[in-house]
C-alpha cells in the first residue's frame, strides 16, 4: 500500500526543520515482529525543540502516531496514515545527577538505563534489564518486571503536546496503575528523571545477570516476538489461562503461540500482521470460553488492515 506524499507540504510549514521526513517509509524493520505496512510520513526529530516546532505547525487534521523500539507493537499490514514519529539520537542521552538520580532521554533502551545505573552504583533500576523496550514506552504503559515498576522509580518526565507545548509531569500526574498510565493523551515523552538508591556495582550487575538468565530460560527472546501479549488478569496469570485453554503451540498462518511461554506470540518467518492479531483474538476467544476470563491486550496495535 502507498499513501499520498505530503512531505514537501509539511517541510514548507517549518522552514528550519532539522529532523528527517520520509514518505511511505517501511516500518516493519523497526518492529520486533518484522511485520506491517509503511508510514505515510516518518518523522525523526533532531531534538525536543525540533519536535515542538514540527507539532506546532502540523495541521490538526493530520493524525500523529508515536512508536518506540517496536518491541510491544503489532503494526497492521495496511500501514499508518498521517505522521509516525520515532525519536532517535537526539533523545538518547543519559546523565547522572545528585542524590542518586538519573536523567534519561526516552529513546534510550530500558536495558541501557539499567546498565548505566549499575555502572554508577545506583540501585533500584535493575528490573529494567528484563523489559525489551525503550523509556518512552515504559512511561506510557508503566512497564515493569521482576518486582519493579516504572511508577516506583520515576520522579518526573518531560513531554511535548500536539500543539508543540512542553510539559513537565510529576509521578502523580501519570495516575499509574498495572501496565497503564493515565497521563493526558497525545503527549510525546522526551525525557525522564529517575530516583535510585545507593548500591554496589557488582551486586547490581549480578542481579541483572540473574534477570537475564531468567528471561532466557523462560521466554522466546530470540524469536520474532512482541513480548507479553496479554495483561495478567487480577488474581490470575495470562499464560496459565492460555495454557489451560489448549492454546500452547496454536498456529494461524505464519503466527504461533510460543511453546516456551504461551503469553508470547511468534512470527515463525512468514506471518502477516493480520495472522498475529487474529491468532491473538482466537486465543482470547478460547480463554473466554474455557475460563470466563476476558484477556486484555498488552501489545499495542496500530495502523490499517490490508486493503
From TrEMBL:
Pathway: Cell wall biogenesis; peptidoglycan biosynthesis. Belongs to the MurB family. It catalyses: UDP-N-acetyl-alpha-D-muramate + NADP(+) = UDP-N-acetyl-3-O-(1-carboxyvinyl)-alpha-D-glucosamine + NADPH + H(+). Cell wall formation. Its cofactor is FAD. InterPro entries: FAD-bd_PCMH, FAD-bd_PCMH-like_sf, FAD-bd_PCMH_sub1, FAD-bd_PCMH_sub2, MurB, MurB_C, MurB_C_sf, Oxid_FAD_bind_N. It is found in: Cytoplasm. One of its GO terms (molecular function) is UDP-N-acetylmuramate dehydrogenase activity. HAMAP family: MurB (MF_00037). Its main location: cytoplasm. The lineage of its organism: Bacteria, Pseudomonadati, Pseudomonadota, Alphaproteobacteria, Hyphomicrobiales. PROSITE patterns: FAD_PCMH. This is UDP-N-acetylenolpyruvoylglucosamine reductase. Its EC number is 1.3.1.98. Transmembrane segments: none annotated. Keywords: Cell cycle, Cell division, Cell shape, Cell wall biogenesis/degradation, Cytoplasm, FAD, Flavoprotein, NADP, Oxidoreductase, Peptidoglycan synthesis. Residues 34-214 form the FAD-binding PCMH-type domain. PANTHER family: UDP-N-ACETYLENOLPYRUVOYLGLUCOSAMINE REDUCTASE (PTHR21071). The active site is at 179, 228 (proton donor), 298. It comes from Ancylobacter crimeensis.
Amino acid at each position: 500500500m502507498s499513501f499520498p506524499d505530503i512531505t514537501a507540504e509539511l517541510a514548507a510549514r517549518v522552514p528550519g526543520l532539522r529532523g528527517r521526513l520520509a514518505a511511505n517509509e517501511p516500518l516493519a524493520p523497526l518492529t520486533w515482529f518484522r511485520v506491517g505496512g509503511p508510514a505515510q510520513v516518518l518523522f525523526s526529530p533532531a531534538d525536543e525543540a525540533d519536535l515542538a516546532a514540527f507539532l506546532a505547525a502540523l495541521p490538526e487534521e493530520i493524525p500523529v502516531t508515536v512508536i518506540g523500539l517496536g518491541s510491544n507493537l503489532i503494526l497492521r499490514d495496511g500501514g499508518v496514515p498521517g505522521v509516525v514519529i520515532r525519536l532517535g539520537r537526539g533523545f538518547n542521552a543519559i546523565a547522572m545527577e545528585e542524590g542518586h538520580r538519573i536523567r534519561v532521554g526516552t529513546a534510550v533502551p530500558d536495558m541501557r538505563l539499567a546498565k548505566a545505573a549499575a555502572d554508577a552504583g545506583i540501585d533500584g533500576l535493575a528490573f529494567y534489564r528484563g523489559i525489551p523496550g525503550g523509556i518512552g514506552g515504559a512511561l506510557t504503559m508503566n512497564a515493569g518486571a521482576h518486582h519493579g515498576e516504572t511508577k516506583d522509580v520515576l520522579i518526573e518526565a518531560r513531554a511535548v503536546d500536539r500543539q508543540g507545548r512542553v510539559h513537565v509531569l510529576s509521578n502523580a500526574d501519570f495516575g499509574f496503575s498495572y501496565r497503564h498510565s493515565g497521563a493526558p493523551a497525545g503527549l510525546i515523552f522526551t525525557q525522564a528523571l529517575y530516583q535510585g538508591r545507593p548500591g554496589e556495582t557488582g551486586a547490581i550487575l549480578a542481579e541483572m545477570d540473574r534477570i537475564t538468565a531468567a528471561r532466557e530460560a523462560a521466554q522466546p527472546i530470540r524469536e520474532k516476538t512482541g513480548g507479553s501479549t496479554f495483561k495478567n488478569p487480577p488474581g490470575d496469570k495470562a499464560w496459565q489461562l492460555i495454557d489451560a485453554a489448549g492454546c500452547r503451540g496454536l498456529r494461524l498462518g505464519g503466527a504461533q503461540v510460543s511453546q516456551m511461554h504461551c503469553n508470547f506470540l511468534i512470527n515463525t518467518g512468514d506471518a502477516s500482521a493480520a495472522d498475529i492479531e487474529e491468532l491473538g483474538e482466537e486465543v482470547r476467544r478460547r480463554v473466554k470460553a474455557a475460563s470466563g476470563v476476558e484477556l486484555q491486550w498488552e501489545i499495542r496495535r496500530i495502523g490499517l488492515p490490508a486493503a
